[in-house]
Amino acid sequence: MNNFEYQNPIKILFGENQIENLSKEIPKDAKVLLLYGGGSIKQNGIYEQVTTALKEYKVIEFGGIPANPEYAILINALKMIKELEITYLLAVGGGSVIDGTKFLSAAALYKGDTPWDILTNNIRTTKGLPFGTVLTLPATGSEMNSGAVITRDETKEKLAMGGPGLFPQFSILDPTVIQSIPKRQLANGITDAFTHVLEQYMTYPIGALLQDRIAESILQTLIEVAPKVINDPKDYKAAANFMWSCTMALNGLIQKGVPTDWAVHAMGHELTALFGIDHARTLAVIAPSHYRYNFNAKKEKLAQYAERIWNVTEGTTEEKANAAIEKTEMFFHALDIHTKLSDYTANYEGTAQEISRRFTERGWNGLGEHKKLTPNDVEKIVTLAY
């Protein structure tokens, strides 16, 4: 096991009716900017719960943050923050709204002229404007980490940012909120969380027994509750396990002391930027091809995954590893998640070369757990995903 440091300061309020405790978490003198997405919170009762809890506060609203938080829209919110002297941000939404809020937290205190530089120059935020979250869609784990991904439609880019100053002060997780989420988004959430775990698990053995088993328990839980959540989102027990699994998948715990990959996300982000494909679905497109291309480097962990998650006990290491990839694809297909780029666009020719070119321009020459994947490797992996 590798050396590591781990600190996660986020307070979690988990369970039904926790939204009513909002006023206990936000300073009484705060001037709050309430951030949300397309407005579904006004149809499902969450907006009313939040505004009731904040009735004693000065609250300004900013809605319309899209599924891939768009830089140009967030800049409009940033202007409000500065002009109205906002002192506290509250994200009410899924990972996109929370990620957008993290960007605003960083940008509000950024001294440079162009906030996009935070992403292009990989500037770590050590202090941001304070914020909390009310999670409405389990998926990204952004409610319990300090990372974010922002899209810029103007340049067809999707880039990551983060830093210790971007931990939410608190996050409210009420499993009942999933009752109004469409099946497509629930499937996306399951796939997103599942792949988050794989990015931290599907590398090579390093003797971190506990991290492996925690990761495996999250995968097993997601597999078990997936059909229940999609078929009956009012099943509170399934919803609670789904929500907490998504949070645990990316709160930093299972990545400590182990090698991690994240090449799947790097490539997947480009597919979203180029084609607007749902983030989770881009991961399902890239992951199987990535594992096949890097089969020899990953086969031991793939075989372990096959045994412990899919009960594949017969065959050689290579046969088990191949079965693991097939079982993973079958799981995605059972969620109605396609695993080939051609399932999403007819204009896929040249995509691999374009992504490779972008990675070359950025100097991304060492992806994956071994830091050896080059833009040429990326081109081959994306081509396999056609």
Please sum up the structure shown.
The chain is of the alpha/beta class and 386 residues long. The chain is built from 13 helices and 8 strands. It starts with 10 loop residues before the first strand and ends with a helix.
Any overview of this molecule?
- With about 375 residues, this protein is α/β, with parallel strands linked by helices.
- The chain folds into 2 domains: about 10-175, Rossmann fold, CATH 3.40.50.1970; about 185-385, Dehydroquinate synthase-like - alpha domain (Dehydroquinate synthase-like, alpha domain, Up-down Bundle).
- It is about 45% helix and about 10% strand.
- The protein has 13 helices and 8 strands.
- It has helices at about 45-55, 70-85, 95-110, 115-120, 185-200, 210-230, 235-250, 265-275, 280-295, 295-310, 315-335, 350-360, 375-385; strands at about 10-15, 30-35, 60, 90-95, 130-135, 145-150, 155-160, 170-175.
- The strands form 2 sheets. The protein has a 6-stranded parallel beta sheet with strand order 1-8-5-4-2-3, sandwiched between helices.
- Strand 2 (about 30-35), helix 1 and strand 3 form a beta-alpha-beta unit.
- The chain starts with 10 loop residues before the first strand and ends with a helix.
